[in-house]
Amino acid sequence: MAQETNTAELQQDASSGELFLPTKHVLDKAIVTDFDALRERANQNPEAFWEEQARDLEWFSTWNTVKTWQPEIPKVEWFVGATCNITVNALDRHVKNGRGDKTAYRYIPEEGAEQPSSVSYKELLERVNRIANGLKSLGVIEGDRVTIYMALTPDLPAAMLACARLGAIHCVVYAGFSAPALKQRIEDSGSKVVISSDYGWRRGKKVDLAAIVKDATDGIACIEKQIIQQRGDAPLPEGALSLDELCAAQASECEPAVLSSEAPLFYLYTSGTTGKPKGICHVHGGYGVGTSYTQRIAFDLNEDDIYFCSADPGWITGHSYVVYGPLINGATVVLGEGALDFPDAGRWWKMVEEQKITIFYSTPTAIRALMRFGDEFPAKYDLSSLRILGSVGEPINPEAWLWFYKNIGHENCALIDTWWQTETGQFLISTVPSYPTKPGSPGKPYPGITAKVVNSQGEEVPRNEQGFLVIDSQWPAMMRTIFGDHERYAGYWQQIPGYYSVGDAAKMDEDGYIRVIGRTDDVMNVSGYRIGTAEVESALVSHPAVAESAVIGKPDPLKGESIKAFVILRVGFEASDDLAAALKKHVRVELSPIAMPGEIEFVPSLPKTRSGKIMRRVLKAKELGTATGDISTLED
Ligand code: PRX
Fold first, then answer.
1. What's the average model confidence in pLDDT over 336-365?
2. Of 187, 444, 595, 622, which sits with the fewest C-beta atoms within 10 Å of its C-beta?
3. What residue's CA is closest to ligand 1, atom 2?
4. Per-residue pLDDT band at 636 (split at 50, 70, 90)
5. CA angle, corner 464, sides to 366 and 401, nearest 5?
6. Given ligand 1 and candidates 441, 470, 525, 526, which is best to mutate, with the most ligand atoms within 8 Å of its CB?
């Protein structure tokens, strides 16, 4: 049996030979009871399998072909020829089926800020329609881009859905990004409208989002209108419209645009190996099928579940599993604005008790942070409503896994570790609650997905040996292009011919469980946030004191990785602690607080290849005291 092998590795990694089998509490509500049989059936005919899932959703007209795949372009299409609108599945379908009064979102503000509130499916549909009509009145049409830079309240998903209602493409930028990063994303997407909040809450303080939008849009030609969700009573900036006033003037009905299943739904910017973020494109049809199905089976999402996910919709987890996946499944979602440790580290556990949350989905960094605050915080609250725990975004170390499982799940919940990416749109590797889990491993490829661990020639490596994680199939929610740069998209299939390269190193054990080690490219994973080394470097060299810089990610017990920058100063500048602090602040202002280096070292030179490329690998090896590998291309 799968759970009886590989104990040596478990003992070493988790200091425990224990295997984690589902409890009755979990099994009673299992949607998938035989994961292996399901995977086998799906893999025999993935297209028939996904077609079966697609039939659970509503379409204006059905498809003539389930999937087409042209690897030479590359181009994938799902549910070809069908027409749909993702908002019909997320909203109208539930209202029509008599579930309009069910709560879609419960909004929990930071303590001392606003009042908690709830919005039902019917109310959300009306709000979405009013915003959509408002956007229409401003001239927004199918294919137009709208940037959304908002605080986490139900109006954020409403704004996304309003764009989708019209066939406009939303580009959500996380409201923690600073003005230059927002500007870059607005310009790349060519957005016509920007919707923002006046402010957000963070640790009892208001963050002035409107001011950031003002800085970001100054002198941008593409932006025609700015809409502001007014939470306070500060006057609107000149030329801006109030979201509430715009909505008040509109009808609460808006026919959904009849769109091709392949019509773009959103562009979401993520970091790559260059300084320019990539606008990952997802579409209405396949994305709705892939996210809703995977969420249902990963979390056993039942009618009476209360679901909490700590991700902000500014990231892919928010798009797929706070907005589209849960709404298509008709779930009740808890949105918690603000920090996890404000007013204290019991905030989320208090929310679990008060809201009777059944499914709790977060990141290893958050779990490690909460673990450090001590067991007494979760112990103060009644967490017995919980049935499923989820983890995402970075490898979860077995110690954090066990703490989460024991102190939050009380050994009575399933802990699901979901591996996926902005590009994949949906979970690709995980388990389901009825299936045995191994701490530190997301699990196995999901139904209809083939994942392998290979060497650089694409040959499978022996079990338990490290290699490149690749995917050998197509799935409905996969990205369709990178906006404005299809060549960069094609690159994912060129690194290891024949496969989609995910950019992660991994091992597969003899039972087929995959353990993800980390990124293999110049992308760092800091607290589960993906940050390109090149992005931080280009922020640094935009400072007048910096001539050159190289950035690496270092293992960090809390954040997974922390950022270290090596800097060569321009002539006339002296290395000092003050300058290091100023450079850190500069990155914070240029990019985002999450991208701020923890350490800056001033150096006279950087290791480079003869063609002038910085060898970050050499810096990292030196820093960590590990082998540098092949340095034959080093300049001197
Ligand atoms: O390195 C993997 C890591 O996060 C990367 C994807 O980052 P992003 O597109 O920002 O999406 C994060 C949320 C889905 C992956 O290439 N990653 C994601 N989930 C896991 C993970 N690493 C280990 N275990 C996971 N469960």
1. 96
2. 622
3. 394
4. low
5. 20
6. 525
Q: How many CA atoms lie within 13 A of 133 on its CB side?
A: 17
Pairing of strands 278-283, 481-482: antiparallel
Residue 18, pLDDT score: 62
* SS3 state at 104: strand
Query: Distance from first CA to last CA of the chain, Å, rounded?
Result: 54
Whether residue 580 is predicted with pLDDT greater than 60 in this model: the reply is yes
pLDDT at 17 over 80: no
Nearest Cα residue to atom 25 of ligand 1: 419
Phi, psi of 544 (to 5 degrees): -60, -25
Nearest CA to ligand 1 atom 24: 395
Using CA atoms, how far apart are residues 433 and 299, in angstroms rounded to an integer?
A: 7
Residue 626, pLDDT score: 86
CA distance 32 to 150: 36
Least confident span in 9-18, 214-223, 283-292: 9-18
Residue 163 neighbours by CB under 8 Å, 6+ apart: 132, 135, 140, 146, 148, 169, 170, 266
- Give residue 447 CA to ligand 1 midpoint distance, Å: 19
- CB of 332 shorter than 6 A to ligand 1: no
For residue 362, list its beta bridge partners.
391
Cβ of 516 closer than 6 Å to ligand 1, yes or no, is yes
**Measured between alpha carbons, how far is 191 from 194 in angstroms, rounded to an integer?**
7
Q: Which CATH architecture has domain 527-624?
A: 2-Layer Sandwich (3.30)
Whether 515 is in the pocket of ligand 1, judged by its Cβ within 6 Å, is no
- Is pLDDT above 70 for 160? yes
Q: Is the CB of 310 under 6 A from ligand 1?
A: no
Percent of the chain scoring above 90 in pLDDT: 90
Atom of ligand 1 nearest to the CA of 422: 9
Is residue 2 over pLDDT 80? no
Residues in the chain, how many?
636
Mutate to test the pocket of ligand 1, among 389, 392, 446, 508 (most ligand atoms within 8 A of CB): 392
pLDDT recorded at residue 7: 26
How far apart CA 315 and CA 309 sit, in angstroms, is: 12
Separation in Å, CA 190 to CA 193, 263, 480: 9, 17, 19
The answer to whether the beta carbons of residues 526 and 561 sit under 8 Å apart is yes
Is residue 527 lining ligand 1, measured as CB closer than 6 Å? no
Does ligand 1 lie within 6 Å of residue 503's CB atom?
yes
**pLDDT, position 13:** 42
Longest dimension (CA), the chain: 72
Q: How confident is the model at residue 633 (pLDDT cuts 50, 70, 90)?
A: low
pLDDT category, 614, cuts 50, 70, 90?
Answer: confident
Mutate to test the pocket of ligand 1, among 394, 446, 529 (most ligand atoms within 8 A of CB): 394
C-alpha 69 – ligand 1 centre gap (Å): 25
Nearest atom within ligand 1 for CA of residue 420? 14
- The proportion of the chain whose per-residue pLDDT surpasses 70, expressed as a percent, equals 96
Protein residue with its CA nearest to atom 26 in ligand 1: 419
Rounded CA separation 290/42 (Å): 14
Are the C-beta atoms of residues 259 and 88 closer than 8 Å to each other? no
Helix, strand, or coil (residue 275)? coil
Q: How confident is the model at residue 615 (pLDDT cuts 50, 70, 90)?
A: confident
**Residue 421: CB within 6 Å of ligand 1?**
yes
Whole-Å CA distances, 318 to 392, 420, 493: 12, 13, 26
